[in-house]
Amino acid sequence: MIHESAQVDPGAKIGDNAKIWNWVQIRENAEIGENTIISKSVYIDSGVRIGRNVKIQNNVSVYHGVSIEDGVFIGPHVCFTNDKYPRSINPDGTLKGDDDWRVSETVVKYGSSIGANSTILPGVTIGRFAMIGSGAIVTKDVPDNGLVVGAPGELIGYVCDCGIKLVKGQARGKLIVYKCQNCGREIESGEEL
Q1: Which residues in 122-133 are b (16+ Cβ under 10 Å) and which e?
Q2: What is the topology classification, in CATH, of domain 7-159?
Q3: pTM of the full predicted structure?
């Protein structure tokens, strides 16, 4: 389903059963996986790759250089940036062109969640089933199941694949065990939090 007000470039690929809601813009060579939901007023730049079963909430901006794997949740008003050194003009005062940008690749891995109003800086990888708290500014890589909050974002713990924060348990040698009180899953980490 593509809403009549959405602007989808003919060169974009939209998977089966995807839902593209009102005022969405999807640029050329973008790929949207099957069963993915793109909510109101989302901008998806050229070349962006979005997997299957992804939910992107209202007013999200996903710029060139971003890849979003299957099963990711992105809350409202999230912004993915793609240039570490943005400028409108060159030192001589001329307007920058497409060839003047240094795009850094950003990857959001399988099953992760990004809370509302977060900003994801360029060149980071957000690990599998990681969770980014609302309003966080992510400036560096996030490990699998990592829980990041704040500005700048700080790793404060781990979450289970089911979404529940893990509780710190006993050490196993040099590793710390974190356990889910909901489903019993355990994760080992070399980093104590």
Answers
A1: bbbbbbbbbbbb
A2: UDP N-Acetylglucosamine Acyltransferase; domain 1 (2.160.10)
A3: 0.93
